[in-house]
Specification:
With about 240 residues, this protein is α/β, with parallel strands linked by helices. It contains seven helices and ten strands.
């Protein structure tokens, strides 16, 4: 049985007097441990589908099941707890707390989860090293480049080894070296820890790493294919 099952998802948004289609009867199954990318032009529905999968936005109709549990109609409190315990998010806008350091931003979710302070500190420093930000633990987001902030956001999403990671343009603002290193880290988490990755992207580098590529246009899935992922060593 698939870990994630979406059936006939529909979502529209109001833009002035016009209704914009975000999702148009989207159905998709995603197995536990998949490494999948959603590709397509801007406005194709990639981010809308990610937000629905993570419970950040409810579809107008249709159903989403995660781990055998229907989540599209969960009460807000239960949905928030699910996101806290089982889902990591990487947003295009980073969503870092500007008054907190990189380490404190990464530790925040673990603090809410009740992870002891010493363990939070150890894991945050270790993940900063994994994403190439050694020595920047005490730097705050306004004093960091866009690429550095992106890597802090990634570190925050994966530090707790969630069951599912949803990433919206995870390599935005990253140079080629950093993007390759990040995708190699994602693959390691996927292969060694079974973390499921669903990524929305325009980046051919991300698409090349994915084992499954789902193409979207106008709120619909227009292609769904398995491919041989590339796995170069980080430069």
């Amino acid at each position: 049985m698939s870990d994630i099952r979406c059936r006939e998802l529909c979502k529209t948004f109001r833009q002035g007097e016009e209704r914009i289609t975000g999702l148009d009867r989207v159905s998709i199954d995603i197995d536990s441990g998949e490494f999948l990318c959603l590709s397509g032009p801007s406005g194709s529905g990639k981010t809308t589908l990610l937000n629905a999968l993570g419970g950040l936005d409810r579809p107008d109709s249709g159903s989403i099941t995660f781990g055998g549990r229907r989540i599209d109609c969960l009460p807000r409190g239960e949905l928030a707890d699910l996101r806290l315990r089982e889902i990591g998010f990487v947003f295009q806008a980073y969503n870092l707390v500007p008054v907190l350091s990189a380490r404190e931003n990464i530790e925040f979710v673990m603090q809410v989860q009740g992870v002891p302070a010493a363990e939070r500190h150890r894991r945050s420093l270790a993940i900063l090293a994994e994403v190439g930000l050694e020595g920047l633990a005490d730097r705050r987001p306004p004093a960091m480049s866009g690429g550095q902030q992106q890597r802090v956001a990634v570190a925050r999403a994966i530090v707790s080894r969630p069951r599912l990671v949803l990433a919206d343009e995870p390599t935005a603002n990253l140079d080629s070296h950093s993007a390759t290193r990040l995708m190699a880290l994602f693959q390691t988490l996927n292969r060694e820890h079974g973390v499921t990755f669903v990524m929305a992207t325009h980046d051919p580098r991300v698409m090349a790493f994915a084992a499954r590529r789902v193409s979207m246009e106008d709120g619909r899935i227009v292609a769904d294919r398995v491919q041989e992922p590339c796995a170069p060593e980080p430069a």
